[in-house]
Amino acid sequence: MIDVKQLKYFVTIAEEGQITKAAQKLHIAQPPLSQQLKQLEEELGVLLFDRKAKKMELTPPGKAFYEKAKQLLRQLDDAVAEVKEIEDGTAGTLSIGCVKSCFSYLAQAIRHFHEQVPNVTFHLREGDTFSICQLLQERHIDIGIVRLPMNAAHYDVIQLASERYVGVLPAQWNNGRAALCMRDFANWPLLLLHRVHGAGQYERVIEECRRHGFEPNVLCECPDATILLSLVAQGLGATIVPQSTVALFRLPGIDVFEITDSSMTAEAAAILDRQRYLPKSARRFLAVLQTIAANGQQEENGPLLRA
C-alpha cells in the first residue's frame, strides 16, 4: 500500500536527480531512502528511474507517476491548509507577489492588515506582471498584485483603483513650468517601463504619444520603476509613470507634473489562482486591499505634483 511518505520521497528524488541529494534534503540516511524507492517500484511493478545515467532520470512510467504524485501532494497540502484555516486564519505566512509600480497598494494594505491581524507574517516577491503570474501558477505566492492588461484566463481578477499617469523630469530641466502636455515629450528622450514579456504600460504610453501626433524617442526600456526614476534624476531623460509610483519612490533630483491633455489611466488588480484554495488570512488581506481601493486611500503618498 503506497503511503504519503513514499510519494514525498519519490518526488524529492525526481527533483534532486540523486539519492544522495534527496536524502540530504529530506534529512534521512541514504540506505532507507533507497529501500523506500525500491519498495515503491515493487508495489507499482515498474521501474521509475533509469539508473544507468549519471543522474537518475525518470522513465516514461516514472514521468507519468511524478506528475500524479505532485498533484496528490498538492491536494493533500490544500486539504490540510483548509482544515487549519477554518479553525483560525490569524497566524502563519502570507505570500504576495507585486509589480513594483503597484507597491503603494501593497504598503497601505499591509499596514492596515497588520493592525488587525498582527501575528500574520509576509513573504513578498517582486517582478513584472508576467513573472508574478508565473509565481502564482507555481504556487510560490498566494496573491498577485499586477498592472493590467493581462491574460486573465486562469485567474480570478479583483480590479483595484485606477490612477492617472504623471510626467517626471530631471530637476535641472525645470524652467518654471506648472504642468506638461503630451507634445512636450516629443522634445525629450523617454525612459519607459516595459514588461519582460507581453504588452502593458509601455504600449499604452507609445499609443498615447502617437495619438498626439508624434513618435517618441525611447532611450531606455526597463521593468523596474526605481531604476527609471534614478536615470531621470541623473538627467538622461523624462518618463511617464503611474502617479503612485512616483509617490512611493520619490527621489531627489526629479520634478513631477500633471499631464493636462492626457486621459491615460493605469489599472491595477489583485489576481488569484481560481483552481487553488485561498487561505483565510489571504481572504482577509484581500478585503483590506479592496477597502483601501474603494476609499481611494493614498494618505501615505503625500503630495505628488511639484506645481
Automatic annotation (TrEMBL):
Transmembrane segments: none annotated. Pfam families: HTH_1, LysR_substrate. GO terms for molecular function: DNA binding; DNA-binding transcription factor activity. The keyword Transcription regulation applies. One of its GO terms (cellular component) is protein-DNA complex. The keyword Transcription applies. Gene3D superfamilies: 3.40.190.290, Winged helix-like DNA-binding domain superfamily/Winged helix DNA-binding domain. Keywords: DNA-binding, Transcription, Transcription regulation. Residues 2-59 form the HTH lysR-type domain. It comes from the Bacteria. SUPFAM superfamilies: Periplasmic binding protein-like II (SSF53850), Winged helix' DNA-binding domain (SSF46785). Belongs to the LysR transcriptional regulatory family. This is HTH-type transcriptional regulator BsdA.
